[in-house]
Design a protein that fits this description.
heterodimer; A: alpha+beta; 2 helices; 6 strands; B: 152 residues; alpha+beta; Alpha-Beta Plaits; 6-stranded mixed β-sheet
Amino acid sequence: MPLDLDADLHIFFQDSGDIAQAAGSEPFTVLFSDGSKNLALFDREVNSTAPFFLSRQSDIDANFVENGTLITINNQDYAVTNVAPDGAGLAVVTLTNA
Amino acid sequence: MSRRQQLVDAIEARLKDIANGVVFNLPDGAYVCQNNINGVYPWRKTPFNPNELPAIEFWDASSDDSPGASGQHEHQLPIVLQVSTAGSQPASVARTLMEDIVAAIGSDPRWGNLASWTDITGHGLMIEKAGDVIAGAQILFTVRYRTPLWRL
């Protein structure tokens, strides 16, 4: 019997409280983080954040998530700036505040 | 108080005059400011929060001095000024902020007769993006002024 890797990955997401939903698509569970990050501009810095989520690549594909997609996570709107598949069924999606 | 301190105070006060609709008189006519500034900070020590922007910080750098005529020192004091702004179109806003700032400087390049002249020596723009999109614009200018010998 072949391994169902995608179903195995689902175990890690099913209990996450982070729900993502792209416009016109179904909600799916992700692991979301919004840590702090300072942006350096010339000689000075501005405080900012570095929102991103980890999700199954199958959810990314099914919901047509790509650069520029507007997506709502935990009732906060974001725009996708990068989708980085890890080649093993997961993807790291970086965001900016919409 | 040193002339250098007086100049920094004058620069801070002038930059605080920038507000949407304020008019600066320039040699080619009246210039109307297009932006509001939330704060002006000489030598600010801490990073800005995006909700503080747009804001200006500036600092006086190392002066290039030489003996002047009639027993005076001539100073060329470089000022590094940076304005930061956040939003969906921060680059275009930053460009108009740069124009407002240069107009504020140009409205009196002698800073109330504290200086002999001010030269704009450069300006640049950069954008960084993470959770916020932030544009930073830098304006470099040099204030030329004279003092009696052994005074700054």
